[in-house]
Amino acid sequence: MRVYSEPRNTLVVDLHAIQSERQSYIRMKRALDIVLALIMIVLTSPLFLITALLIKLSTRGPVIYTQIRLGQFGHKFLIYKFRTMYTSADFDHEQFEIEKAKGTFIKSPKDPRITPIGRYLRNTSIDELPQLFNVLLGDMSIVGPRPSEEFFFLNNQRFKDIRLMVKPGMTGLWQVKNRSNHCTIFDMIDYDIEYIQNMNLWNDIKIILMTIPAVLQGEGAV
């Protein structure tokens, strides 16, 4: 596993150039987001109901877990997920995320904060299905950089403007290329910047197609 002291991709991309040159792409991307989100919500509606019932019957607490994330241009929004942790784990989760943002991120398969049903939901990425509504609301895209909390940028401030020039996505390069238990934050940043530098509709479609086998392999998202 390669570990970097800082991200390799340091090219600063001009936001205004991207917006002016890719207006048609941005419109097509939004149309694709709406169509795919609506189709997926309809197709997975039985799964939504079953998952909600299992969460409600297995542990106390809400079915949907919300968190504030940074969207395009630093816009703050509530991200939706099926709850996978015990409700008493909220404080520990925040501290864990802060430590994760400092460098190396190691996923623990026996994390005691995660409920039994939550572990399965994470391994299959079912916990992220409610983000389809974030896509419909326009806060997220199907494909994009991983949606991050504000403290993610505590030690990565110079990459903040690059990461936030596009909408965060439900899936992206990092999710399909490196769904491993041990990676660095800098690996994640590298993949996100690589996506932003090369974003186009064909790359989005390829990432969507690559996401399907990645999820079916059950290697899990974070």
Write the layout of secondary structure elements.
Blueprint: H1 15-21, H2 23-43, H3 45-58, E1 64-70, E2 76-82, H4 90-100, E3 104-106, H5 116-124, H6 131-137, E4 141-143, H7 160-163, E5 169-171, H8 173-177, E6 182-184, H9 185-197, H10 201-216
Parallel strand pairs: 4-5
Antiparallel strand pairs: 1-2, 3-6
Helix pairs in contact: 2-6
Any descriptors?
two-stranded antiparallel sheet; two-stranded antiparallel ribbon; 12% strand; 6 strands; mainly alpha; 222 residues; 10 helices; disordered N terminus
Notes on the protein architecture:
The protein has helices spanning 15-21, 23-43, 45-58, 90-100, 116-124, 131-137, 160-163, 173-177, 185-197, 201-216; strands at 64-70, 76-82, 104-106, 141-143, 169-171, 182-184. A hairpin with a 5-residue loop joins strand 1 and strand 2 (76-82). It is built from 10 helices and 6 strands, in the order H-H-H-E-E-H-E-H-H-E-H-E-H-E-H-H. The chain has one domain (15-216). The chain is mainly α. Residues 1-5 have low confidence and may be disordered. Strands 1-2 form a two-stranded antiparallel sheet. A two-stranded antiparallel ribbon has the order 3-6. Strands 4-5 form a two-stranded parallel ribbon.
